Amino acid sequence: MKYAKLGNSDLNVSQISFGCMSLGADHSENEQLIHRAIELGINTFDTADLYANGFNEETLGAALKGKREKVIIATKVGNQWRKDGSGWDWNPRKAYIKKAVHESLDRLQTDYIDLYQLHGGTIDDPIDEAIEAFEELKSGGYIRAYGISSIRPNVIREWAKKSNMVSVMMQYSLLDKRAEENCLDFLKDQGIGVIVRGALAKGLLAGKPPTAYLNHSNENVQNIQNLLASMEDENRKMRDLALQYVLSNPAVSTIASGIRTMNQLEENASIFNLPFIEPNKFRVLQSDIESFQYEVHR
After folding, report:
1. pTM value > 0.85
2. How much is the pLDDT for 23?
3. Is residue 122 part of a domain?
4. 213 among known catalytic residues
5. Domain range holding 95?
């Protein structure tokens, strides 16, 4: 496993991190996956209070008992469940953030959260108020650092200008290269780390049957899969090349990879045991796969 500093923080994250949203409903099975991940060198676990209405945090906290000092816990806030359980509403207010953190701490069975992230956001949010909440939680020792989860360039720029955030979680893959236009270089220059989600594009870059994805037609996805398949060798498969492409960007600190099975875990963790993508193959992937731009929230 390789590690990278997350932005300008003191958090050294494994470059493959464990996206906990895919965990199931069985504590024992989840514990086996999480413990094996730690054995393989994965030290960063990303969850959210939204996932499974808090159960995801609970199962992660239970699995990490006795192992807290070995890991980095990242969770998220901002989606408030309705009392009747019918869904959730967006709430980036200071009072809610400062209340929700204690509920997450209880579920995670920890005294502090390493990385606390706003789980979305728009340019119309009370951004200054949300930043105040995160800064106060940091000063109080409840969190070590904070960031946001957003693909909106205007929101990212505003938070970068006003806050001391250390990270942005955003979607980025060979099928979604929008971040290359005006986000990745900007965040690198600002000293803000990128946590990538969706690096395998819902499994389409790991061999799932082709289907339309964002602005890519079914046919385009098939062509991209064929291109990756033509680059496979005895060591690397399509998924490996897709992950290596994302990791090659200097702005990227880690890929939060959704893991459901032990096989997925082993495959993801072994990426650094493989030869890295050659420059000529990287250039083909960079030039021959169409890039789109963000159409809104620019």
Report:
1. yes
2. 95
3. yes
4. no
5. 3-201+244-280
* DSSP codes joined into one string, 249-262: STTEEEEEEE--SH
Contact by Cβ (8 Å): 220, 287: no
CA distances to 110, 195, 253 from 172, rounded to whole Å, are 31, 9, 12
Rg of the chain's alpha carbons, rounded to an integer? 19
Q: Which residues contact 143 (CB under 8 A, 6 or more apart)?
A: 101, 112, 113, 114, 115, 116, 134, 137
pLDDT tens digits, one per residue of 194-249 = 999 999 999 999 999 999 999 999 999 999 999 999 999 988 999 999 999 999 99
Distance CA(149)–CA(195), nearest Å, equals: 9
- Domain tally, the chain: 1
Domain assignment of residue 46, yes or no: yes
CATH number at residue 137: 3.20.20.100
Q: Is the pLDDT of residue 82 over 90?
A: no
Residue 208 lies in a domain: no
Catalytic residue selected from 3, 51, 245, 294: 51
Residue 254's alpha-carbon distances to 13, 73, 247, in angstroms, are 7, 13, 7
Residue 116 lies in a domain: yes
